[in-house]
Specification:
The structure holds 4 protein chains of 4 kinds. Helices cover about 75% and strands about 0% of the residues of chain A. Chain A is mostly helical. Chain A has a domain at about 105-295: MetI-like (MetI-like fold, Orthogonal Bundle). In chain A, α4 packs across α7 and α11 runs antiparallel to α12. The longest helix of chain A is centred in the middle third of the chain and has 38 residues, at about 190-230. The N and C termini of chain A lie close together (about 5 Å). Among the domains of chain B are: about 110-180, no CATH class; about 295-370 and about 470-545 and about 585-605, 3-Layer(aba) Sandwich (Rossmann fold), CATH 3.40.50. Helix content of chain B is about 30%, strand content about 25%. Chain B has an 8-stranded mixed beta sheet, with helices on both faces. The longest helix of chain B has 18 residues, at about 195-210. Helices cover about 75% and strands about 0% of the residues of chain C. In chain C, α3 (about 25-35) crosses α14 (about 295-325), α6 (about 110-145) packs across α8 (about 165-200) and α6 crosses α12. By secondary structure, chain D is an alpha+beta fold. Chain D is about 25% helix and about 20% strand. Chain D has 15 helices and 20 strands. In chain D, a hairpin with a 2-residue loop joins β5 (about 115-125) and β6 (about 125-130). The radius of gyration of chain D is 24 Å and the shape is globular. The chains are: A mainly alpha, B alpha/beta, C mainly alpha, D alpha+beta. Chains in contact: A-B, A-C, A-D, B-C, C-D. The complex binds adenosine-5'-triphosphate (2 copies) and magnesium ion (2 copies). Chain B: Keywords: ATP-binding, Cell membrane, Hydrolase, Membrane, Nucleotide-binding, Transport. Chain B: Pfam families: ABC_tran, oligo_HPY. Chain B: It is a peripheral membrane protein. Chain B: It comes from Phaeobacter italicus. Chain B: InterPro entries: AAA+_ATPase, ABC_Ni/Peptide_Import, ABC_transporter-like_ATP-bd, ABC_transporter-like_CS, Oligopep_ABC_C, P-loop_NTPase.
Chain lengths: ~325, ~600, ~325, ~550
């Protein structure tokens, strides 16, 4: 298992380098201009100067190389400096965002908490809801509960968040006035009141996101449970005189969780990737909003860095999912 | 109290609700199980054996079945008799595992793969006997010892897949015995196991029964096992009980036609002694059967010399080969035209690998395979493609070896399509002829594999193998998965084809009785090597190698008078065939003890 | 027990009896099984209705989806409410000629829904088919040919990591002009969008198919096929693909939904069809701002998208069962 | 009293990414920064200049502007303190000039300093700006929200190429304004607290400002008008029915102000045919049919501008046919501008011999069918306009193919993209443009022949229509040399007329800026000539 992990990690390096190159070239090819949001009143010569000041005058390969150095060499130093108070990175140029002229990583670090809070909670909520639904639907296959579950999850799956998001805002903020329609990212949770406030502002985005994730996860859980409910060992467990609860919730569930856990693990990068539309609808201003904003403003270093971090997470969690599989299922041995 | 039966099944009827309306699983089945007695229930697949036993546990309900009438009276340890048919599930929970234990057919799947053996063993104990963890573990270890599992402490922490099939089945037995039930139901506990392991398990159950006085309800379709185990026998046929009697009555004086047919279909070890050539079995219901020995010829069709097949074991960061599985090690034999060479041996000894190596379905390491004078190992892909036309294979599992998504006609036609032998209506005709050949109605051509019984399926596999008019067929456990009656038909079919078409067979099996019936030559394999090879009569009547002798001893005989006891058995676990890269095995050397009868003189590992 | 069984107890007489029945045609079987699946049948019928509605609706319906009333008509005809609105608000502005009302520019909602459905369904199906083809291809090849496995799986990682929007921009730059020259502006955008959605959504299918292929490859019938001289391409097409159909079907049903929604998100961001070219996603999106005033404008496209997804899902369930001979036999 | 009214919440649906307007130039950034850093003089809501950090507005009459119009002398107010307690001096002003004109700095506001040859500081409170040539309007430097004064002490180390490295300074400039940055989360939210060094001891009334960014205009409007979570929402580009429905909730109201922003249809004066090579496409004049006055006039006549205003902008829009509709004096109102005349348009085309010869409902001119590609950026109102105009044009036999392009591509000047508005690979395109301040001279320059974007100029250039007219060029030259206000206005009107009559563009709507504030927010005075938040020091809670 260890060698498997190490081997895959080593393999990941060229993969990621290649991915970063592809992303870079893609962004390079994409039309758009960092000056797009500068008002039309600013004349083109000035824009051209501003472009040069951003380093756009240099050839492509040099910029790619610079980015590589900044991302893989300087940023880790900055990280070390921040943790240990050293000064390795002093004076080195970090990956700088074109929109804000500040280090990209700083903004990412600033954004991450919101995203993790909202998308992460949604993910957890979805898991907490989806698993029981999936389990029960499978256990009572074709019952009305199961049919309802199918129906609701399909609807949940097919309703785009720009609709469901606005819908809950209209209902809960505008009509009922229960929750704020705009997420306050400056809120510091340090007391019961602020905690309640935080909960209130998280309810709606979490609800919208969780609906979609629940829809998919519960389908998965159901299928996996169905696979296992008909296995011979379930009969063995019953023949031992175990209660239905233990049979289903211990024996069957433990086996059914194996594929589901890997699916969950595979979905984790998307937590960090944020939820572009939902974040936008609720003004959560997390990573997803950062990315879409950066794409719209053609802030290439930002887009490149964010997508690349995302790629790293995807590759990493692919690996984690495989390893988890090996851990959860004693039959699987990676040599 | 003593002569009162532990379980009485009266007029049991079980129905299953399916899409096409209710299906009757068993109808009006009645029999008793007395204390300390082993009742064997026999019958072909689908005859309702499992359904009866599951009803007794009230587990049919979880499979969609329903007990629509009848009583299942069970004599509880305390509290007298109850009708299990209408107890609630809460009470059933206390009875299951505690007063009735059950052993299931498939040791590979009957255990939960993700829990340790210890956990699964102690579960029942902790519920029914209110033991704490330590007590339960102590008892579990004791149980493992009772079922003769070596190193029980270590096994407790292992997962099922880390144990061999035999050990797993013992764990299942230990689990069923854990709470000392009054009734033990064993649903085909040995069907999936090797002869040697089967013999051990049967002996073990017999001993446990005698030691604890538990009543046993033993379900099987193997008459030899019945002869070995039963006190009383219940014969079932298509959901009904057709006959009941003591084991001697049944074997010596069967009343019902079905029972008679069943007994006729069982190949008995020793039946062929004195005959030099194999001949088809005499079956009930097939009147105009001609039983003639199949002689074959002396012409060598396949010559295998020093065949070595190894599978690499990869590891390390670079996934280099770190060791090899020595699946086939220096094996030589000859197959004669129109004759059958059988390879026998325990699971994992390399029989299949040898068979596949000959067709180059796995690539052998070295050696020589000469088929009709052509060196098979030297062919390139195109030539090999052509050569395979003359060599075909039939696989063990008739369920797995047919594509579930293809109509039978297409599956049989596929080889001819591949070689462009026929097309259009000619192809249709040839397929139809093949169906005739294997005695399947032509109307089956449009069916799918799942619509066929196992035997019929295996005939399709045979038809497919025959489609190219091969000269040699490698039959890898071609009948192992079949019911006795079906097995007999398939065996007869194979022999018929051999007689008519002059086919040669390389017959791979672990069933000594079957091998005795069909072979001209027999090779006994152990750990990748042939330890003994020679004409069938000699090898069976005069086994020379220690392993062959042990193997012969293990085979149960379908005769209640020839029971075996545990102490006759003497098997060592097979050593690992995995060796590291610089291991070089010594070449096999044989001694010719009689003309054509060779025995391995070098160390075989046994 | 029947007489036949008595005479020949070893024969499976039930099988024998069946054997006398006339051979059934395969498609007949599929249809029979499909019919017996209640959900599938209703899903299928619903889907058919939707398809017929969007394909033939505009041909027989009297209003034109792109027509904007002008002059004095404009004020009169805009913001018309659906006729059922009269049930609770008889004073609302409505007209039987516009059964579902009109939008803020006076375009007829029903005809826009029908017209938009054509586009959405076409995009959804085409993109789904493309994604399935790609996903199955990659999955099968990766699963079957061990040597390509690592490479293809890393490729999957790459595609998972690629951001959709820049890709769309790049594709638009590279291909839009030439495509719209050869197949017209709408056709060009259609091909572009379908390709993009397809290219960015095949990865989950590939992963699942690969896993199944890995398992099926080890089944004996594949070995058997090899021993009877079947070439690898035929092994894949005859033996492996039919057996991974069921996960592919599941991906397909989810794929349609994702494709329809992705298309709407693209229109939303300005990368989609020309603005006067309605699609369900765009209708939904355009109406969100006036959701409280004119709830019907969001509800109808929303309901239609959901219904399509739902019906396709049930349809897929039924088809999967019907195409699997094992289930069909039961 | 300072800080007595608690917190005010402002929402901008575009989030500020930096608080240094010299590095960004985006309106959102300029306006967010205007809470902190201030110019010497500002425009008030009626477009008049008011002294801000300066004592008074220098003019020729008070001697602040030299007679030859080549220098202007500003006197700073005394005793103005930076928020760190140090005093504002003329050195800071001079530094700001140096900062922005540094060749490697990429300053977005460098045009403000166009023509400036030097900035002198005779003493701590005097700044003399010298121009290379006579400058009739010398109020570019240090006037308005785009040209505020930076603190020398803070930005000294951030000149030129180092500018982006000073993240702390760019995110938290020290200023003289009513508020001080407390925390800046780029592209998300800014919190400000009242500046206790602010020159007016009773201001600002609010102690804190929460400045939230992101989302979309609908959500911003909803947050102010419907849920009341926010007090002020900027630039609500929403359809009027949506706005009025939101206002119906009674939590706040929308206010509009009019600058020179005009939504217009640009007519391509060159041939955009894809068959032409990359160096000729949208370069060679004339357009196959748009150059015919009958065609573009008919196109203009077929448009119902009043309806467009009603559909798209409501009270934030006015019918206009002027390129420069504000300041009002420059506006023209050609006859028939506010009425739709489809019949007239048809007659005009018929008369010009542009008729439908092949019976497909589309007219042909010299065999070329009048099919136009009509593009704009993605935006709900613009798409509605497209649909309406397409319909109207179809009634005069002109077929329009619509295309909408993502704004960041459309307005991004990427020479590699075929979809930018500068490339104009279409026959007609619609967008809005404006200019800063009140003097349109350089804006009128956007119609000069040599400002047309070409491959040679990397497709940069403001003459998007590729309009070219000798008379126009001559008049513009005359305008540059004229200081007399009445004369300037007269020339301006002529220029407006030429561009309309000769097919440079079809102005559609004079757009105002529509912002919304809560009923409880007092002191809002919507200003379109400067930062909307220009008078935030006067904002207060109203009952
Ligand atoms: N869950 C079920 N649903 C429908 N029919 C069933 C079910 N289980 C069993 N049956 C039917 O009941 C009959 C008896 O089956 P049973 O499993 O008892 O056979 P068996 O004698 O144990 O066969 P085998 O030797 O193959 O185990 C069969 O015809 C079978 O088709
Ligand atoms: N593809 C393979 N890769 C690695 N090892 C293999 C492979 N196939 C077989 N082996 C190993 O080779 C040995 C011989 O296997 P083989 O299948 O030939 O045994 P067998 O006698 O046919 O057993 P059975 O009766 O169970 O079929 C076993 O140890 C098995 O684990
Ligand atoms: Mg059974
Ligand atoms: Mg084998």
């Amino acid at each position: 298992m260890l060698t498997f992990t190490i081997r895959r990690l080593i393999l990941a390096v060229p993969t990621l380098l290649f991915i970063s190159l592809v992303i870079f070239l893609l962004l390079e090819l994409a039309p758009g201009d960092p000056m797009a949001q500068v008002p039309l009143t600013v004349p083109p010569e000035v824009k051209e100067k501003m472009r040069l000041a951003l380093g756009l005058g240099e050839p492509v390969h040099i910029r790619f190389w610079k980015w590589l150095v900044q991302f893989f060499w300087i940023e880790p130093q900055v990280l070390i400096d921040n943790i240990f108070g050293t000064t390795f990175s002093a004076g080195d140029l970090r990956v700088i965002s074109w929109q804000t002229r500040s280090p990209v990583m700083d903004i990412v670090v600033q954004r991450l908490p919101q995203t993790l809070w909202v998308v992460g909670t949604a993910y957890i909520v979805a898991i907490v809801i989806a698993l029981p639904i999936g389990i029960y639907s499978a256990y009572r296959q074709y019952s009305w509960f199961d049919q309802m579950g199918t129906f609701v999850s399909m609807v949940g799956f097919s309703v785009p968040p720009f609709f469901s998001g606005v819908l809950v805002i209209v209902i809960f903020s505008v009509q009922l006035g229960w929750f704020p329609s705009i997420y306050d990212t400056t809120l510091v949770v340090d007391s019961w009141d602020t905690f309640v406030k935080q909960l209130q502002q998280m309810v709606m985005p979490v609800m919208v996101l969780a609906l979609q994730i629940t829809a998919q996860l519960s389908r998965f859980m159901r299928a996996s449970m169905l696979d296992n409910l008909n296995q011979d060992y379930v009969r063995t467990a019953r023949a031992k005189g175990l209660s239905e609860y233990v049979v289903v919730m211990v024996h069957v569930l433990r086996n059914s969780m194996i594929p589901v856990v890997t699916v969950i693990a595979l979905g984790i990068p998307s937590i960090f990737g944020g939820a572009i539309i939902t974040e936008q609808v609720f003004k959560v201003n997390g990573i997803g909003q950062l990315l879409i904003g950066a794409i719209q403003a053609n802030d290439l270093p930002m887009v490149q860095t964010l997508t690349f971090i995302f790629a790293v997470l995807i590759v990493l969690f692919n690996l984690i999912a495989d390893v988890l599989y090996g851990i959860l299922d004693p039959r699987i041995r990676y040599d | 109290m003593l002569d009162q039966p532990i379980a009485q099944i009266k007029g049991l009827r079980v129905e299953f609700q399916t899409k096409d309306g209710p299906v009757v699983g068993v109808q009006d089945v009645s029999f008793d199980v007395n204390p300390g007695e082993t009742v064997c229930i026999v019958g072909e697949s689908g005859s309702g054996k499992s359904v009866s036993s599951l009803s007794l546990m009230r587990l049919v309900e979880f499979g969609g079945g329903e007990i629509t009438s009848g009583q299942l009276v069970f004599d509880r340890r305390e509290g007298g008799q109850v009708d299990l048919g209408d107890t609630d599930q809460a009470l059933m929970k206390q009875i299951r595992g505690n007063e009735i234990g059950m052993i299931f057919q498939e040791p590979m799947t009957a255990l939960n793969p993700v829990f340790t053996v210890g956990r699964q063993l102690t579960e029942g104990l902790r519920i029914h006997k209110n033991m704490n963890k330590a007590q339960a573990e102590a008892r579990a270890i004791e149980l493992l010892r009772e079922v003769r599992i070596p190193e029980p402490e270590r096994r407790m922490k292992q997962y099922p897949h880390e144990l061999s099939g035999g050990m797993r089945q013992r764990v299942v037995i230990a689990m069923a015995m854990a709470c000392e039930p009054r009734l033990l139901i064993a649903d085909e506990p040995t069907t999936a196991l090797d002869v040697t392991i089967q013999a051990e398990i049967l002996a073990l159950m017999d001993r446990l029964k005698r030691e604890t006085g538990t009543a046993v309800m033993f379900i099987t379709h193997d008459m030899a096992v019945v002869a070995q185990m039963a006190d009383r026998v219940v014969v079932m046929f298509r959901g009904n009980k057709v006959e009941e009697g003591t084991v001697h009555e049944i074997f010596e004086n069967p009343q019902h036609d079905y029972t008679k047919a069943l007994l006729a279909a069982v190949p008995k070890l020793g039946e062929m002694s004195g005959k030099n050539y194999p001949e088809p079995m005499k079956l009930m219901g097939a009147e105009d059967q001609k039983i003639e020995p199949i002689k074959g010829s002396d012409e060598v069709i396949l010559n295998v010399e020093n065949l070595v097949t190894r599978f690499p074991v990869k590891g390390g960061l670079l996934r280099r080969t770190v060791a090899n599985v020595h699946a086939v090690e220096d094996v030589s034999f000859k197959v004669f035209k129109g004759q059958t060479l059988s390879l026998v041996g325990e699971s994992g000894c390399g029989k299949s690998s040898a068979g596949r190596s000959i067709l180059r379905l796995v690539e052998p390491q070295s050696g020589k395979v000469e088929f009709e004078g052509r060196d098979i190992l030297g062919l390139n892909q195109n030539e090999l493609h052509k050569a395979r036309q003359d060599m075909q294979m039939i696989f063990q599992d008739p369920f797995a070896s047919l594509n579930p998504q293809m109509q039978l006609m297409d599956q049989v036609a596929e080889p001819m399509r591949n070689y462009g032998l026929a097309s259009g209506s000619e192809l249709q005709d040839r397929v139809a002829n093949l169906f005739d050949r294997v005695h399947l109605p032509r109307s089956f051509m449009r069916r799918y594999p799942h619509e066929m019984s196992g035997g019929q399926r295996q005939r399709i596999a045979i038809a497919r193998a025959l489609a190219l008019n091969p000269k040699l067929i490698v039959a890898d456990e071609a009948v192992s998965a079949l019911d006795v009656s079906v097995q007999a038909q398939v065996l007869n079919l194979m022999m018929e084809l051999q007689a008519e078409l002059g086919l040669s067979f390389l017959f791979i099996s672990h069933d000594m009785a079957v091998v005795e019936r069909v072979s001209h030559q027999v090779g006994v394999m152990y750990l990748g090597r042939i330890v003994e090879i020679g004409p069938r009569a000699r090898v069976f009547e005069n086994p020379q190698h220690a392993y062959t002798q042990a193997l012969m001893k293990a085979v149960p005989i379908a005769d209640p008078n020839q029971r075996k006891s545990e102490k006759d058995l003497n098997f060592k676990p097979i050593p690992s065939p995995i060796h590291d890269l610089n291991y070089s095995p010594e070449p096999s050397q044989y001694m010719e003890v009689a003309p054509g009868h060779f025995v391995l003189t070098t160390d075989s590992g046994y | 027990m029947t007489d036949a069984a008595k005479k020949d107890p070893l024969q499976h007489s039930s099988v024998q009896q069946e054997a006398e029945k006339a051979p059934r045609s395969q498609w007949r079987d599929v249809w029979d099984q499909f019919k017996s699946h209640r959900g599938a049948l209703s899903g299928g019928i619903l889907f058919l209705i939707i398809c017929v509605g969007v394909i033939f609706g505009p041909l027989v319906y009297w209003n034109d989806a792109q027509y904007v009333p002008t002059g004095r008509d404009f004020i009169k005809l805009r913001d018309m409410r659906p006729i059922y609105h009269a049930l609770w608000d008889p004073s609302a502005k409505m007209d039987w000629a516009y059964p579902l009302g009109t939008d803020n520019l006076g375009r007829d909602t029903l005809s826009r829904l029908m017209f938009g459905g054509r586009v959405s369904l076409a995009v959804g199906m085409a993109a789904m088919v493309l994604a399935l083809l790609l996903g199955s291809l990659v999955g099968v090849v990766a699963g079957y040919f061990k040597r390509l496995d690592g490479l293809l799986m890393r490729l999957t990682d790459l595609f998972l990591a690629l951001p959709l929007l820049p890709m769309i921009l790049v594709a638009a730059v590279l291909f839009r002009e030439s495509l719209s020259k050869s197949i017209g502006p709408e056709g060009g955008v259609f091909v572009l969008i379908v390709c993009l959605i397809g290219i960015t959504s095949w990865m989950p299918t590939a992963r699942i198919v690969r896993g199944d292929v890995l398992a099926i490859k080890e089944r004996e019938f594949v070995l058997a096929a090899r021993s009877i001289g079947t070439k690898p391409d035929k092994i894949i097409s005859r033996h492996i693909l039919p057996n991974v159909l069921s996960p592919i079907m599941v991906s397909a049903t989810l794929g349609i939904a994702t494709a329809i929604i992705t298309e709407s998100a693209l229109s939303f961001l300005g990368f989609g069809f020309p603005p006067d070219f309605p699609t369900w996603g765009r209708l939904l999106n355009d109406a969100v701002d006036r959701m409280t005033l004119f709830p019907e404008r969001v509800l109808w496209p929303g309901i239609l998208i959901s219904l399509t997804v739902l019906s396709v899902n049930y349809l897929g369930d039924g088809l999967r069962d019907a195409l699997d001979p094992r289930i069909r036999g039961r | 009293e300072r800080g007595s009214d608690g917190q005010v919440n402002i929402i901008y649906w575009q989030a500020p990414s930096i608080l240094n307007p010299f590095l960004s130039g985006g309106t959102k950034d300029v306006e967010a920064a205007s809470l902190v850093i201030e110019p010497l003089a500002r425009y008030n809501s009626s477009g008049e200049m008011v002294p801000w950090l300066a004592e008074e507005i220098p003019t020729t009459s008070n001697g602040g502007v030299s007679e030859d119009l080549t220098s202007i002398t500003w006197k700073l107010k005394k005793g103005i303190k930076w928020s760190d307690g140090s005093e504002l001096t003329s050195a800071d002003v001079k530094f700001t000039y140096e900062y922005c004109t540094h060749p490697e700095g990429g300053c977005a506001q460098v045009t403000k300093f166009e023509g400036v040859t030097s900035v002198e500081t005779p003493d701590d409170y005097t700044v003399v700006v010298t121009f290379g040539a006579a400058t009739p309007f010398p109020y570019g430097p240090f006037v308005g929200g785009e040209s505020p004064i930076l603190q020398k002490a803070q930005f000294e180390q951030c000149m030129g190429a180092k500018a982006p490295e000073c993240t702390d300074a760019n995110f938290g400039p020290i200023g003289t304004g009513p508020f001080v940055v407390e925390e800046f989360k780029p592209n998300d939210v800014i919190t400000f607290v009242a500046n206790d060094q602010y020159r007016d001891a009773s201001k600002p009334a609010f102690s804190r400002v929460l400045f939230k960014g992101g989302g979309d205009a609908t959500a911003a409007g909803r947050a102010v008008l419907e849920t009341g979570e926010f007090d002020y929402a900027w630039n609500l580009q929403l359809a009027p029915d949506v706005i009025s429905q939101m206002e119906a909730a009674g939590k706040g109201k929308a206010v509009a102000g009019f600058g020179p922003l005009v939504e217009r249809l640009m007519l391509n004066n060159t041939n955009p045919s894809p068959d032409l090579g990359p160096d000729e496409r949208s370069v060679v004049r004339p357009h196959p049919f748009l150059s015919d006055p009958a065609v573009y006039k008919a196109m203009s006549m077929a448009i119902d501008r009043e309806l467009l205003v009603e559909i798209g902008y409501g009270k934030a829009g006015k019918v206009t046919c002027s390129w420069v509709p504000a300041p009002e004096a420059y506006a023209i109102s050609p006859e028939g501008c506010n009425v739709q005349d489809v019949a007239g348009a048809n007659a005009m085309l018929d008369e010009a011999g542009i008729v439908d010869t092949d019976g497909d409902g589309i007219r042909e001119k010299d065999g070329v069918p009048l099919k136009v590609l009509y593009q704009t950026s993605t935006n709900a109102v613009r798409q509605d306009f497209q649909a309406l105009i397409k319909q109207w044009w179809s009634e005069i036999g002109i077929d329009a193919e619509l295309r909408n392009i993502n704004a960041s591509v459309f307005f991004g000047g990427d020479p590699g993209s075929p979809d930018t508005f500068q490339k104009f690979y279409a026959d007609v395109e619609m967008y809005a443009n404006t200019f800063n301040g009140t003097d349109p001279q350089s804006y009128f320059g956007n119609g000069l022949c040599d400002k047309a974007p070409t491959p040679a100029s990397q497709w940069q250039g403001e003459n998007i229509s590729r309009f070219c007219d000798e008379e126009f060029d001559a008049l513009h030259a005359e305008l540059s040399g004229t200081a007399d206000m009445a004369k300037r206005v007269e020339i301006g009107q002529k220029l407006n007329t030429i561009i309309f009559e000769k097919g440079g563009m079809i102005p559609l709507v004079h757009r105002g800026r529509l912002s919304a504030h809560a009923n409880t927010l007092g002191g809002v005075d919507l200003n379109v000539w400067d930062s909307e938040l220009w008078n935030i020091a006067d904002w207060h809670r109203a009952e």
